[in-house]
Amino acid sequence: MGYLVYAYRPSASILLLGTMVFFVFYIVLKDNKNNEALMAAAYIAGAEVFYRMNGAMVFYETGKYSVIIFLVLGMFYKGTSSKTVPYWLYLLILIPGIIMASITLNYDVVFRKAIAFNLSGPVCLGVSALYCYYKKISADQFNNLIILLLMPLVANMTYLYFYTPNIGEALMSGTGSNYAASGGYGPNQISTVMGLGAFLACSRLFVVKNKMINLIDLIIFGMMFFRAMVTFSRGGVLTGIICIIAFVLIFYQKKIGIDQVKLLRKSGIFFGALIIIWMYTTLKTQGLITYRYTNRDAAGKLEDDITTGRAELIETELQGFYNHPIMGVGVGKAKEYRSDEVGSATASHNEISRLLSEHGLLGLAAILILIFVPVVFWFKFKNNYYFLAFLAFWFLTINHSAMRIALPGFVYGLALLYIVDEKKNPVYRKRLNH
């Protein structure tokens, strides 16, 4: 698919339309009996950036809209757990900010676009949480879900290799984020999806007990991690590494005896591969990648701001919260507020500070719900070995890239799934109340 779109770009629109129609009919035909809606949402969430960068989407937020539509369709057939009250409350919390925006936004701002850009991500997260919270899913279904999430990321990676086969020709931007190595698209988003793809491929090294598949996953991991690094956008790379470490820690705790020894052996292979990839990337980028991660410019001079301007964005948003603590400045208004205060109309890169600035104390309540509800769920069941990694991906991504894509919100929902291992004796399984 990656090569097809590279060879004939309009095919991306045809593929997206065909995929959407297929999934809708498939969900309706199967009555979502085996979580077909969740599978469809996973594929679209993984493919969003790929289709967006190739101009296949009618609206910029089509990916998030699609995830929401698929999951709502799935809930029509299977409903939600009675335990989802916190996430209904979270969605209701977002409404007052829209009302404030209708009052405070300047007349030259397109209201629909401002709301869609800033709230489609949070709403996507809320709907994902509603579908997944206390949702039982078999281990086999969950593994298929991971594959469906990974497949479009592999297609995206393939496209990048065809688009920029020679990284040396893409180094004109120095140590700054590299658009040429990112398929001509936003390095931040490419780094994020490649970082997630590298993590998913790496996790399968531990979950799947097949040497041939493990070898394929190791190759995919290496290729994806390399493409994430050469974007020169650090957020997705560091997030991917942290997710891998979080996953291994949880997975190790769930193993005993010889299985722990095997896991440590595979961990050694992974870290060895990581060192080789770093050395190879350093060679291909003529040492510039080392400068990037030590916060230096192409001449080796230490940069003043390691956050590349994000700290200033957070500061102005927190100032907006301080000045408007009750209701906030309104959805989409933080950008205008920043323009008035410091003369920069840059969109937010941090979802936490944006929620505080635009929603006030209600935004703080939303943040507390999003953090504490999954933590309580984890301490109660501890049956999803991806939990900590998925929650880390969500939290770290929204702190360096806000919610520009559907993945952080959707992956947050996946952390809330109740995975049932049908191979184990059900007597030892903790009872799940709906």
Largest sheet: 2 strands, parallel
Low-pLDDT windows of residues: 425-430
Count of individual helical segments: 19
Share of residues in strands: under 5%
Strand arrangement in the largest pleated sheet: 1-2
What is the N-to-C succession of helices and strands?
Answer: HHHHHHHEHHHHHHHHHHHHE
Category by helix and strand content: mainly alpha
Radius of gyration using CA atoms only: 22 Å
Extended strand count: 2
The average pLDDT value, as a whole number, equals 86
From the spread of the alpha carbons, the general shape counts as: globular
Count of all domains:
2
Helical content stands at: 55-70%
* First-to-last CA distance: 41 Å
Describe the structure.
The chain is built from 19 helices and two strands. It is mainly α. The protein folds into two domains: 1-79, no CATH class; 81-321 and 324-428, no CATH class. The two termini are 41 Å apart. The model is unreliable at 425-430 (pLDDT under 50).
Present the secondary structure layout.
Elements: H1 2-7, H2 11-30, H3 36-53, H4 62-78, H5 85-93, H6 95-104, H7 111-132, E1 136-138, H8 139-163, H9 187-207, H10 211-229, H11 234-253, H12 258-284, H13 288-293, H14 310-323, H15 333-342, H16 351-359, H17 361-381, H18 387-400, H19 407-414, E2 418-420
Parallel strand pairs: 1-2
Helix pairs in contact: 2-3, 2-4, 3-4, 3-8, 4-7, 5-7, 5-17, 7-19, 8-9, 8-10, 9-10, 9-11, 10-12, 11-12, 11-18, 14-15, 14-16, 16-17, 18-19
